[in-house]
Amino acid sequence: MSRRLQERSWLAVLILTSTAYGSVAAQETSAPAIYTGLCPIPAPLLSQPIQPFENLPAEAIGVRADGADIDSETQLASYFGNVEVHYGQQQLRTENAQINQETGNINASGATQFTDGYVQVQSENFRLNSGENRAYLSGARYQMSGAGARGRAEVLSISPAEVLLEGSTFTTCPEEEPTWQLSAETIAISENEAFGEAWNAKFELFGVPVLWVPYLNFPVTDERKSGFLFPTIRSSQKNGFEVELPYYFNIAPNMDATLAPRYMAERGLQLQGEYRYLSQQGGGEFNLAYLNEDDSLPTDNSRFLWRVEHEQQWSEQWRSYVNAIGVSDDDYLNDIGSDFAGRADAQLYRQVQANYLTDDWQVTIRAEDFELLGNFRSPYRTLPQASSFYTFTDELGLEYSLFSELSHFRNQDVSSDYATRIHLEPQVKFAVERPAYDWLAEVGYSYTRYDQQANIIDGRTENPDRGLPTVRWRGRLNLERDFEWNGTEYHQTLQPQVQYLYVPFRDQTGIGIYDSTIMQDDYRGLFRARRFTGLDRIADANQVTVGASSSIFDAQAQELARISLAQIYYFEDSRTQLFDDSSAVMTNRSDIALETRFRLSDSWFFNSAVQYDMELNRTQKSQTALEYRKDNMNLVQFSHRNVTNILDDNIEQLGLQAVVELSPRWQMASNWYYDLQNKRSNDALLALQYSDCCWAVRFSAYRRINRNVEQQLIDPIANAPEFDNGISVQFIIKGLGSDDRSLLDMLEQSLFGYRHPFHLSN
User: Fold this and answer.
1) pLDDT tens digits, residue range 17-49?
2) Fewest C-beta in 10 Å: which of 176, 188, 306, 521?
């Protein structure tokens, strides 16, 4: 039978149907959980969704039942046997239900199942108070849809705005006996803001109460929410026992901040702050770490680190960028550390830059500064530098360009030491590109003039100038062939190339050195037009560079191997030098630059870069790496590095870096560098992590050289170096905030961070 009743409650229309709709009784237990990897996906508490009613008005209730009894005098409608009630997004399944047509209240006895699309509930009974617009369920088990939160409650009440739990538990663990849970007198969960509040709450770990708080605010989804993040606990020889407790501020959808007090037993209390923001035109970040007084030092000086980064796009042509970092003293990074600079960094770079870009013009205005950590020659600040590059191509294919630059340099330590430089460089290029070959011819002239402080000691003159023509020609062949090996087809490319470069010699000893240094002589570097960065030194050249690069590809065009080899032959000595004779070229040929890269399989890679001196028959520089890489959780890299004649001292190191998934629950990370010259380990790290569905714990231990820069200034000829040892323990509760950094990211905090060494074209 079917009737429509007029209601005066929160539901205006009620549709009732009595049918023999199967025999699906409400169950106290749900279907078995489904396991995916470590974590089971709990089965929904609603055994199966209620079939929707066709053409049901928006403000109507649909009811199905095996039978119904409607009393016209009391206005009570009683339903029994497989009762299903559907109103809006809310669904109720029970054995017996009563609906008061006058008040709109609903009462259901016996086992019930209820959902409103946000929460699913199994309970002993159900009561809807239409006046309060709230449903009450007692003896309830609940589960949040999508959030993964679940628990039990003595009384659970639901309104359109929130879920209120009395005498309840809360957890995101899927197991019946959760690893962690909150037990609280009252828990309120907002459906709109996706966060929860608990009063008189106990935090239980493995069934044991470990923390009581009168009030707790916690997230129930991955959305951002202000509150405490989980602490990090460490211990080291230099800092002693450490504990860091961050507090996160969700200021706005495009803005947040983190304040993290960090207590170090040997040094004191440090305050760390981070502020991030984002807009349609750009974004940035501010960081500050401040230690008022370091208890481990005899002085009462404060120690701090600051950092600013901002990127802005003002229009289609104009962009700006700011990136700057500073520390209070040279040993700050070594003693206290930072996420924004490595402990092995010897300098900090700061720049402010604005760019104007069109199809023909590129204009850059910038200021830059270097802060050197240690007893090194003080660098010059560039305050400011304006450069432009203009280019166009005529109908004959000739490309004309003009590069200009105006720079002002100031010594960081000596205010009277400054210089202004103006540079103009017109150039004409003609390039031909064909499938089988390509070549480039260019002719240019560079004129540079300085206004600098004259210094008799270093030989600088007051207004030196320099004009240098440049002639360069480079040609390449593009050869290809297909071949078969062991029944598999491959494709090989061979690209031999030759370059001639001529720059006459000019005496440049009267020019100070403000932004020039020697560049790396790798395979690509041997084909550059200049040996020095900057413009203070332009090396004379009369030379030919000869080289070739060959690659092998499989049938899917995946590069399997690459070998590159090059060498420069000098027709004349290159007499231009920086600070001493070591930067001049007094031989008839350069070191051989050899680079090899191999994809041995889908997981194995080999990389090598060597610079070999043919005159001395020895390797000047080499870097070799063998890596097994399955994914970010499974990689092992073996490396060897060798450098000769670095301040009359050779460097030779062995390295091992690894991240291995020992089992679905156990992961390990390791970092180790061994100094073959001094027979010692310079840097070592071992981390072990256990992960479960809803919690993880990470143990790590390290041993590294203590890079005490200020001590080296006092006693540069020190005996055995000092080492710093430390351990760290980090407990991660999934569902209440966690550290999302992987074990691979941890290796970046070591003295020598992980670097992916392979650049095959895939």
Assistant:
1) 333 222 222 333 334 443 334 566 666 776 677
2) 176
Opening angle at CA 362, ends 356 and 368, nearest 5: 75
Reference 30, options 143, 138, 136; nearest CA is 143
Instruction: Choose among 493, 495, 487: nearest CA to 524.
Output: 495
Question: Going along 159-278, which residue ranges are E strands?
Answer: 162-170, 180-190, 195-205, 208-219, 227-228, 232-236, 240-244, 247-252, 255-264, 268-278
What average pLDDT score do residues 373-391 get?
85
pLDDT (tens digit per residue) in 88-133:
777 888 888 888 877 778 888 888 888 887 788 889 888 888 777 7
Q: Which amino acid is at 262?
A: R
Q: Considering the domain 1-145, what is its CATH architecture? A: Sandwich (2.60)
Q: What is the distance between the alpha carbons of residues 467 and 426, in angstroms, rounded to a whole number?
A: 12
Pairwise CA distance, residues 290 & 288, whole Å: 7
- How far is 200 from 218, CA to CA, in rounded Å? 14
d(CA 466, CA 469): 10
**Where do the structural domains in the chain lie, given as residue ranges?**
1-145
* Burial label, 73 (beta-carbon count in 10 A; 0-12, 13-18, 19+): exposed
Statement: residue 346 has pLDDT above 80? no
Is 75:28 a contact under the CB 8 Å cutoff?
no
